[in-house]
TrEMBL record:
Name of protein: META domain protein
Domain of life, per lineage: Bacteria
Organism name: Rosistilla carotiformis
InterPro entries noted in UniProt: DUF306_Meta_HslJ (IPR005184), HAD-like_sf (IPR036412), HAD_sf (IPR023214), HslJ-like_sf (IPR038670), Hsp_HslJ-like (IPR053147)
Keyword Signal among record annotations: yes
Extent of the signal sequence: 1-22
């Protein structure tokens, strides 16, 4: 009996030692990052986490010091065609302008409603953007602002992917957030976006509580309204949490130097440097490089609106920062529901459309030139002389009409000329958009709107 008892004790001791060696939240049989391909970038993340959580290793970092910071726009979710908070501001202006003539008369509001982003971003301090932020973000209580953000995220959809903006997070980064937290890291957002804007939904979307969101801020004012204490948003003493402001924000609002930093643009370079250069603790830096136009977007030096990546990309090798190539490093970009939505033909696109203009030359009066899109992607219609049909390739806001089969009847010369222009235009189409006016615009590879349609109601 004594021998068997000793054996049991030895086995228990062995199991206990093995458990102590295991990394918290990890299992040798479970891939913590299943949406990542088996590349050096994935292995680098895992190796770093293993090193700083190994109690017996030289690089062990106590949990209290395991701080990981993440940029948001372009790192955790997209920032194209515009940063999502800018989309929120535009929606607010569209909602309010018809009822507020003074607001609608503001030149920067008019620029926003016209989609003139260049005008809004002109100047060192983005004066136009700051103007419309002041008009939409101030003079209201924090509760009123939160309610407007919630309404936006519940009712507005991304123009390409037709999903709520807060459903468009990168699945590989969601897995990374969880993996780090499972291994004793505390995760923070450090973003140029508005802190109040992100705090409304950061916990529900990323599992990051509001107190762990560092963003651009301005003073709030305490007062009583209707006998109740409230906080009023202002633009006083605005702090922009971008570029050199990010390390400042980390110091002011977190109070610990991070050991892991994740970004995607030159705006994140300063906090990557702060995290990895001269840090007395082991550190890790990573940049997300947008290289996948098919599944998301591809840009670096020339982004659609924000997210320029030039100097940080050049500095990455010397500083040991890992650069994620979206196209090759990520097996999957979106969660399953978002992938299905992106591949589904938009309900807004399905239907019968009447051409109103072809390449800015109008159309022949009383000519019935049409395009019909079915929910299975079938494209058909009438040139006003001949019928045509084929299969469209549609993904998000991308559309290619491909080879179209057409009847060969003759008609009046003016209609035949229009048919030639119409079919040539369809062959050049690469994208579409449906405007706030309900019109369908077909767009070529250079971004020109080459055909405009109105919906033919049943």
């Amino acid at each position: 009996m004594r021998v068997s008892s000793l054996v049991v004790v030895a086995l228990l001791a062995s199991l206990s030692a093995a458990t102590a060696k295991a990394q918290p939240g990890s299992s040798p049989h479970v891939d913590p990052l299943p949406s990542w391909n088996e590349t050096a970038r994935k292995q680098a993340v895992i190796d770093f986490v293993n090193r700083v959580t190994d109690r017996d290793g030289d690089d062990y970092v106590p949990p209290a010091q395991r701080i990981a910071v993440f940029d948001n726009d372009g790192t955790l979710w997209p920032e194209a065609p515009l940063p999502f908070q800018v989309e929120f501001v535009f929606e607010e202006l569209k909602r309010r302008a018809p009822q507020e003539p003074k607001l609608a008369a503001d030149p920067m509001v008019q620029a926003a409603l016209a989609g003139d982003v260049k005008k809004l971003l002109a100047g060192k301090h983005y004066d136009g953007l700051m103007r419309i932020l002041a008009l939409t973000h101030t003079g209201i209580t924090t509760d009123e602002f939160n309610a407007r953000v919630e309404t936006w995220r519940e009712t507005t959809r991304h123009p390409r992917f037709q999903k709520a903006y807060t459903d468009l997070t990168y699945q590989p980064m969601q897995e990374l957030l969880k993996y780090l937290r499972d291994n004793g890291f505390e995760t923070f957002i450090v973003s140029g976006g508005g802190a109040d804007f992100m705090r409304v939904w950061s916990e529900a979307v990323y599992g990051i509580p509001p107190q762990n969101v560092v963003g651009s801020t301005a003073l709030t004012k305490f007062e009583f309204r209707d006998g109740k204490p409230v906080l009023i948003k202002t633009m006083d003493q605005a702090f922009v949490d971008d570029k050199d402001g990010k390390p400042v924000g980390i110091h002011q609002f977190i109070g610990r130097r991070p050991i892991a930093c994740f970004g995607n643009s030159d705006g994140d370079q300063a906090m990557l440097e702060y995290t990895t250069i001269g840090n007395p603790l082991p550190s890790f830096g990573m940049l997300v490089h947008h290289t996948d136009a098919e599944r998301e977007y591809a840009y670096d030096a020339h982004p659609p609106a924000s997210g320029t990546l030039v100097t940080a990309l050049a500095a990455a090798p010397a500083n040991g920062w890992n650069v994620v190539d979206m196209k090759t490093d990520w097996k999957q970009i979106w969660g399953t529901d978002t992938m299905e939505a992106a591949n589904k033909v938009s309900d807004l696109l399905v239907g019968n459309w009447l051409a109103e203009d072809i390449e800015n030359r109008g159309v022949v009066d009383r000519a019935h030139t049409t395009l019909e899109i079915a929910d299975d992607g079938t494209a058909s219609g009438n040139t006003s002389v001949n019928r045509y049909s084929g299969k469209a390739k549609i993904s998000g806001d991308k559309i290619e009409l491909g080879r179209l089969v057409m009847t060969r009847r003759a008609g009046p010369q003016s209609l035949m000329d229009q048919e030639t222009r119409f079919m040539a235009a369809l062959a050049k189409v690469t994208r579409y958009r449906i405007g706030d006016d309900g019109l369908l615009y077909l767009i070529d590879a250079e971004g020109n709107e080459i055909v405009r349609f109105s919906k033919i109601e049943d």
